[in-house]
Amino acid sequence: MELWIYxxxxxxxxxxxxxxxxxxxxxxxxxxxxxxxxxxxxxxxLPVREIGNFSRGMTQAEKDKFCILIGTPxxxxxxxxxxxxxxxxxxxxxxxxxxxxxxxxxxxxxxGIFPALHSLPQGNESPQIQVFMIKFYKDYLxxxxxxxxxxVYPIQVGADLTDIRIAELTDNTGDNISxxxxxxxxxxxxxxxxxxxxxxxxxxxEYYGFFHYRRILxxxxxxxxxxxxxxxxxxxxxxxxxxxxxxxxxxxxxxxxDWDVMLYALKELEPEYAKAYHDIFSQQYFYNYNMIIxxxxxxxxxxxWLFPILKRTEELSTPKGWERSDRYTAxxxxxxxxxxxxxxxxxxxxxxxxxxxxx
Length: 359
Known about the structure:
- With 359 residues, the protein is α/β, with parallel strands linked by helices.
- It has two domains: 2-95, Rossmann fold (3-Layer(aba) Sandwich), CATH 3.40.50.20; 117-357, Spore Coat Polysaccharide Biosynthesis Protein SpsA, Chain A.
- Helix content is 39%, strand content 19%.
- It contains 13 helices and 17 strands.
- The protein has a seven-stranded mixed beta sheet with strand order 9-8-7-10-15-12-16. It has a six-stranded mixed beta sheet with strand order 3-4-2-1-5-6, with helices on both faces. Strands 11-17 form a two-stranded antiparallel sheet.
- β1 (2-6), α1 and β2 form a beta-alpha-beta unit.
- α1 (10-22) packs across α5, α11 (271-281) crosses α13 (328-343) and α12 (296-316) packs across α13 (328-343).
- It is globular, with a radius of gyration of 21 Å.
- The two termini are 30 Å apart.
């Protein structure tokens, strides 16, 4: 059967690269999309075709020779399976987040990069850990609600902007920037943790972290015991892939003027990282979604580095950061997380886990 991938963004690209390396005997022929609007005409050197035009004129026997892997965010799969069926294709596989996570772990292991947490030996003792699941009162309801692990605690972000309460913990206590949630999104929870827990010498927690209400890292209780046993500094998700480089991500979500201002703030406040910027951002690997588990000090150091850059960017932006609510500093923080941890990949023990998505 001919193998095609539905989608033309980072998930589809990652699935394609993994299949090319792991299963060269089953070559991917190209990518399918509903429309070329917002999508490239070629990806990974392969054609990107609109499914309607692609299927036109084919007999059913010809269509039955195709197998389509759906490589998009999981919440789009139901709609896409309908489109595939409407166009007469009957063989397709949804690459849900569990399958994608397993595939990308095997791919990066084969490549010898971005080592997996699952590959490490297990210890006998779990660390003192708190991971906060970030929630917002306008989050859409999930059909498949997952039971939280005992070390995961919901925290409501943007709590200063509403009287509605969806979690006991909120980001508007103590020193906080909860009112800036329109720009900072999940990062108001990072700031709250930094100012109210990470700097507290009396706080004896060893690891802290963040998930999202519909995205978590694929980490079990057994994996937790690997943190302490192997003295791990940070766990991040396996990076997403972008073409031609990770500039594709911020070009999609940020205005050039805002990005240029952030680079100016970076050069002004962190010149050594600014020097490394071009090398790091000219590669394809990107730490998306602001999910992390890290030692208390590692996360504190990261926040102390990050938030002054974002604050200075707000000051230099037009309009100023406090005059808008378009999530731009949150998008920037994903790029800055990529810059920071790739810059430190040789002096920090960084391991990786898959990203699981709830629907």
